[in-house]
Design goal:
Helix 4 (about 75-90) packs antiparallel against helix 5. A three-stranded antiparallel sheet has the order 1-2-3. It folds into two domains: about 5-125, no CATH class; about 145-315, hpI Integrase, Chain A (Orthogonal Bundle). The chain is an all-alpha fold and about 350 residues long. Helices cover about 50% and strands about 5% of the residues. GO terms for molecular function: DNA binding.
Length: about 350
Amino acid sequence: MDELGQEIVQAEARVVRDCPLAMETPLPLTHHPAAVYLSQLAPRSRRTMRQALNCLAGILTQGRCDAFTLDWSKLRYPQTVALRSVLMEKYSPATANRMLCALRRTLKEAKRLKLMPWEEYADAVDLPNIRGKTLPKGRMLEESEIIALFRVCLEENSPGGKRDAAMIGILMGGLRRAEVVAVSLEDLNLKTRGLMVRQGKGNEDRMTYLPEGALRAVWDWLQVRGEAPGALLCPVQRYGKVEIRYMNDQVVMNVLQKRAAQAGVPPFTPHDFRRTFISNLLNTTDLLTVQQLVGHADPATTAKYNLRGEAVKQDAVGRLHVPYPETTKHYYQFEEND
């Protein structure tokens, strides 16, 4: 039984009394709206949206229900519109809209399972997205910081150091941390620098490519890892023994925190490598190509990762030619002491 099924079984063992929105009779896995919705998602997205549904259920019941004990089919427009107001107050627009998406999708499954009348469903999900814009999260890593991270890995002169350098190199290719630990040796093409990312966000495969320096880091790691099929990045046990098996994506965070502390690099997240990759690529190629490389469904999502700042926009406009005659010296051309 998978993790989702285990949660349903645990929910069936819990009885939430004196709560109007609580589920009165446990539903089987195939007829539970939240379970059916979550089962359609990739594992990483499933965790995110399960947390969103747990949060929504907690708000609706003052913490008494979660995603699997709330009866989603009982929700009506007064509850969902009030829920939207709470989300608008408590969360950023992006987070609130992600939670509203989880709500709509779960109610859609309740309607499909004939648990919710069509008219009530249509009213309950008739909620506009929350508008607003926040400053981009995260930051770009400076080249000097990346050099420092590679240096502390290589100065260790150990299999673990080479593994960590390869991990940083693959992150420099724009992969999400869950994608990094899911890559197998068979997904790497050394001749083309191609890297097949399988079952990324949205359960979609894509082909991306590693920068030359990143490929060198991976090559050095392969001299230690060997040619055995399986996970590209593996645990390194005591005395440098490499164990060919896949790792949890939390390992990526742990490695980066350790190496950042050793290198004296200010705090950053694994996703900041992705932001750096996208921002740097946008200096050299078009938005559509970058979108395809990083696996975004919408180019607008890719554009949100652009952290290059105003100087890039200023320089871009400065390259445009307007054929106005240069007959006089204009105010902005005068020296400050003129």
